[in-house]
Amino acid sequence: ALITLRQLLDHAAENGYGVPAFNINNMEQGLAIMEAAKAVDAPVILQASRGARSYAGDVMLRHMVQALAEMYPDIPVCMHQDHGNNEATCLTAIRHGFTSVMMDGSLEADMKTPASYDYNVDITRRVTESAHWVGASVEGELGVLGSLETGEAGEEDGSGAVGKLTHDQLLTDPDQAVDFVLKTKCDALAIACGTSHGAYKFTRKPTGDILAMSTIEAIHHKLPNTHLVMHGSSSVPQQLQDLINASGGEMPQTYGVPVEEIERGIKMGVRKVNIDTDCRMAMTGQFRKIAQEKPQEFDPRKFLIPAMDEMKTLVRDRFERFGTAGHA
Ligand code: G3H
Ligand code: 13P
Ligand code: NA
Ligand code: ZN
Q: Which residues are dihydroxyacetone phosphate-binding (predicted)?
C-alpha cells in the first residue's frame, strides 16, 4: 500500500531506524528494490527525480508504482518527488500519485543558483501548505550540497555547475534549521554536511574535516523531533568500482559516504538516506561484465537479470544495515 513519508518516518523515529530512499527510472530498478524489501520485510521509499519523470513519463511512473504496490501487498511504499525545483513540479507529482515531495528551495528554480534564505522559507512554506491540504508530505532542504574539499556542488539534480560554495553554504546552520522547520512546517529536513551527488564525493576516505557528522549532531540536538535527510549518501563501494573497471570501465578512484557514518547518522536523527549512484553502479557493473564475458549475447534480459540481482544485493544490505529490515 502507498503511505506518506510522514507516516513512514514517524514509525522509523519511534523505532530508531533509517530508511534508504532509492531513485527509480524504470521497471527493473523498481523490481530490484521491491524484491530486496520483500526478502527482509522492509518498508520502501521510491523516489523519482525530474529527470526520471521525463525519462519514463508521469503516466508510466504512476502505473509502475501502482503495479509494484499491487505485486508486493505487504510492503508499505512511499512515492517521493526527489529535488522538486518549484511549486509546479511538486503539485504535478502529487497529482500523479506521489505521496511525498521534496521542495528543494536551497537553490533557485534553475537548480544552479544558491537561493536566499527568505526565498527558501517562502516557497517551502507554500508547497507544504498545499501538500498538507491533500495529505502529502514535504521534505525541505536547508544548506547547499557540495564538497568541503573543493567547494564544488557535484551533480546537484544532474543539472550542472552551481559555482564555488563557501563553508557557510555547505554546512546547515543549526539555529537557522530550527527557524526553517518552525516557519515551513515541513515533515522532513534535508541538511548539508559535506556530501555531494554522484560518484566523486571525496578524494580520500572521509574524516570529520570533510564529512561533518558533527553538523548533524548539532542540528539533532536543537531539533530532536525533526526527521533529518541525508542526500548524496551513496557509499560508492570499492567492489563496484572494481567491477566496472575490470570490464573496460574507466572510473577514477573515488570515495563515497561510508555506511558506518550513515549508521552513526541514524543514531543522530537521520531517517531518510538518499541513494542513487550506488544502484546505477551496481546495474552498470553487470552490464559491462556481461558485455565483456559474452560478446555474442544480445537478449537484453541476459543483461538486466544480473543487473537486477546486483542491485538487489546492494539494496538489501542497506535495509539491513540501516535497521529498516523487519519493519514493513
Ligand atoms: O539528485 C540526483 C539524483 O541522483 C537524480 O539524478 O536527475 O540524473 O535523475 P537525475
Ligand atoms: P547519490 O548520488 O550519492 O546516490 O545521492 C542521491 C541523492 O541524493 C538523490 O537525491
Ligand atoms: Na529527496
Ligand atoms: Zn539529492
A: 198, 232-234, 274-277
